[in-house]
Specification:
alpha+beta; Ubiquitin-like (UB roll); Creatine Kinase, Chain A, domain 2; Four Helix Bundle (Hemerythrin (Met), subunit A); 3 domains; nine-stranded mixed sheet; six-stranded mixed sheet; 22 helices; 47% helix; 13% strand; globular; binds adenosine-5'-diphosphate; binds magnesium ion
Length: 703
């Protein structure tokens, strides 16, 4: 029988456990496994043997180069390729790769953002092998390259990437989580792991059309564009039949991801036309973060093969849905207990209720840190903007847990769980279906979904590292506090109950099961004292308050210096992003839109003149009215263009960092809108054949 394609290709490009078992001497494999399981330091003898096996495997698969693959603070991945070639005495090439080269790399790192952590004259940066995430082969025009997932830090050990803090936060949660479960009798637990499943939304557009739009090329989103007569009004795209061209892209993408050992599972059309989603099966947080980067990279690559462009921007088109990334997060012991699994009788599950109460507490205490971890310039269009839900953090628990919480608050004890019942459709031939204990609430930013929390604020182009770093850290910190209390308690059970009740009582305001997109919620949240910070820039300062620094330092996740440098990088990134957008708008307006409109008015005017000449009595009111309207909008556009040029230049005089970023947010950004508005209006009036770029309709309805 022929093999299914998944079985055939899955993991073929990964140096995974199966390959290692085959390639490594038994004793080396065993001690390697032990190192992994216990999270111990890697012995250099073992590293050498592993490196040799890895090289052999890579060469067998056609690799010529290797690279330390890392995730600098740009949020995307970086790689520098070295060939396996070594100097040899005679003219025959020798291919080498040692344990040292596997474990440590030293890219010249002076051009990566460091926020002042590393002056350019001290350009040393090191990459260190993250041996918990498997090495893989990248196969493209550059040939086959062995990619070794690494963490990236400075000469003095400061994290210069997104992975190091994530790994540190995983250690923190493991340490405190293990302590916590011991109080519930799970003495065999050695580690608590954080699992993450990241759902990825994206847009696909035709590449020829994409290449005609400078805004898509330079900014990743459209900076101009009028809505076509049909948007997403009919909601007929969501879960709709997948078009052939898209389906063949998805098939190709899945195959590539499966080869890389990525558990690509679900695919469907999303709400907006041309928008789609892919979800893999969850895995350990750092691997999930690596995989999500690989997924985004592969989406872009495969799209080009199909003459399409994959847009990962949070808001590529105004007026239709933006793209997010849902971060599904839970904590699981190495013995397989999911701390967020309520079980059949949640009201009796004391561990679950304590963990739940701890999460309720820390989400209520740190909403802005969470909001910040999910923010970038692109996501400002999705959070708190015109067409977007507010940037308020709240928790959705669902009916069953809500009921338990009410019981806890009522009398301090719980006696029952609402039982899951059967769903009767009223049609006899259909099977009775078991109803889930929680209904879905699509509007909650932080929703309990059965055995995990789903953090839905994240922007589609972002790394999942930051938000999981924050989640792990705040929860680890709370676990530590709880364990300190339990360690001292005479009656541990009574203490557990007391803490659970106290946490819920003090922080129940964060729980909201209603419609998070409604206007009423903004008012209600205000009344509850929940913060609603409208933009990324305004939330950055909260990462470097004394409180936040103390929290991250206590859990060994960030030092003060690292946090301060990251804040600088965020300000800088915001300013640069808006600057690029403003410059692109200036370029498009002055070289494409305005000349096209001038040409159109000329044609219109000469047509008016010829009509008048040919027939002096003819009614030319329509043409005249259009000409007047177009001319007025043209003049408006020119004024707005000048203004945008002016303020964008002015920004350079502002002090780099916070001041400049705020100037971009408060002055440049609105000036961009003022230029966009008249040009979008013109698009609706000017003859389509004279419009210089593909329209929204061309881009999202004709893929
Ligand atoms: P939906 O969000 O549509 O309800 P699913 O329930 O299928 O979708 O889950 C979405 C994502 O959550 C998937 O990536 C899935 O693997 C992941 N997931 C499921 N269980 C867990 C868990 N315990 N921890 C982390 N992620 C999980
Ligand atoms: Mg989901």
């Amino acid at each position: 029988m022929s093999k299914n394609v998944i079985e055939e290709v899955f993991g073929t490009k990964v140096f995974n456990d199966e390959v290692m078992q085959k390639k490594l001497p038994k004793d080396v494999y065993k001690s390697w496994k032990k190192t992994l399981e216990n999270g111990e330091d890697l012995n250099s003898d073992i590293a050498n043997v592993v490196a040799h096996a890895m090289k052999e495997w890579a060469l067998e698969n056609g690799a010529t180069h290797y690279t330390h693959w890392f995730q600098p603070m740009t949020g995307v991945t970086a790689e520098k390729h070295d060939s396996f070639l070594s100097p040899a005495s005679d003219s025959r090439p020798v291919l080498e790769f040692s344990g040292k080269e596997l474990i440590k790399g030293e890219p010249d790192a002076s051009s990566f953002p460091s926020g002042g952590l590393r002056a350019t004259f001290e350009a040393r940066g090191y990459t260190a092998w993250d041996c918990t995430s498997p090495a893989f082969l990248k196969d493209d025009a550059a040939g086959v390259v062995l990619c070794i997932p690494t963490a990236f830090c400075s000469y003095t050990g400061e994290a210069l990437d997104k992975k190091t803090p994530l790994l540190r936060s995983m250690e923190a949660i493991s340490k405190q989580g293990t302590r916590l479960v011991k109080h519930f009798g799970y003495d065999d637990v050695k580690r608590v792991l954080c699992s993450v499943g990241a759902e990825q939304e994206y847009f696909l557009v035709d590449r020829d059309k994409y290449l005609k739009r400078k805004d898509l090329i330079f900014a990743g989103r459209t900076l101009f564009g009028a809505m076509p007569p049909k948007g997403q009004d009919l909601e007929d795209h969501y879960f709709g039949v997948i078009k052939e061209r898209i389906a063949s892209f998805m098939k190709d993408l899945n195959t590539e991801l499966w080869k890389l050992g990525i558990l690509a599972k679900t695919q469907h059309n999303e709400v907006a036309p041309a928008q789609h989603e892919l979800a893999p099966i969850f895995t350990t947080a750092n691997i999930a973060a690596d995989h999500n980067q690989m997924i985004m990279e592969m989406m872009k690559k495969v799209a080009i093969r199909h003459n399409m462009e994959c847009l990962l921007h949070e808001k590529p088109f105004a007026g239709v849905n933006g793209s997010g990334k849902h971060d599904n997060w839970s904590l699981v012991t190495d013995t397989g207990i999911n701390l967020l699994n309520p079980g059949k009788r949640p009201h009796e599950n004391k561990l679950f209720l304590l963990v739940l109460s701890a999460i309720i507490k820390v989400v209520d205490e740190n909403p802005i840190l969470l909001r910040l971890s999910a923010s970038n310039a692109g996501n400002d269009h999705r959070l708190g903007a015109n067409e977007a839900p507010p940037a308020i953090i709240s928790i959705f628990l669902g009916q069953q847990l809500e009921d338990i919480i009410e019981q806890i608050l009522d009398e301090g004890k719980v006696s029952s769980s609402l039982q899951v019942d059967k769903l009767d459709t009223g049609v006899h031939v259909l099977p009775l279906i078991k109803r889930d204990a929680t209904d879905r609430n699509r509007t909650s930013p932080f929703a309990f979904t059965g055995n995990k929390f789903e953090f839905r604020m994240l922007g589609s182009s972002m790394s999942v590292s930051d938000c999981n770093t924050v989640l792990n850290t705040i929860v680890a910190n709370e676990f530590e506090r709880i364990c300190d209390e339990l360690d001292k308690a005479e009656d541990v059970n009574a203490k557990i109950k007391e803490i659970t009740v106290k946490n819920i009582e003090a922080h129940k305001r964060i729980i909201f099961n209603g419609d998070g997109y409604s206007e009423g919620w903004v008012e209600e949240a205000k009344r509850r004292g929940l913060p609603n910070i409208p933009s990324w820039v305004e939330s950055i300062p909260y990462s470097i308050t004394d409180e936040s620094i103390a929290l991250f330092e206590k859990q060994n996740v960030f030092t003060r210096g690292e946090l301060e440098s990251r804040a600088e990088i965020m300000y800088e990134n915001y300013s640069k992003t808006i600057n690029i957008e403003a410059k692109t708008m200036i370029d498009m307006a002055s070289k494409q839109y305005i000349p096209a409109v001038i040409k159109y008015t000329r044609e219109l005017a000469s047509s008016i003149n010829s009509v008048k000449e040919a027939c002096p009595d003819a009614d030319i009111s329509v043409q005249t009215e259009i000409l007047k309207r177009v001319s007025t909008l043209l003049a408006k556009s020119q004024v707005a263009l000048k203004r945008l040029e002016e303020v964008n230049n002015e920004s350079e005089a502002k002090v780099e960092g916070k001041e400049r970023a705020l100037f971009y947010r408060n002055v440049v950004f609105p000036a961009m809108d003022d230029l966009r508005n008249p040009i979008d209006e013109l698009e609706m009036v000017v003859d389509k054949k004279d419009w210089p770029v593909p329209s929204y309709g061309d881009l999202i309805f004709e893929v």
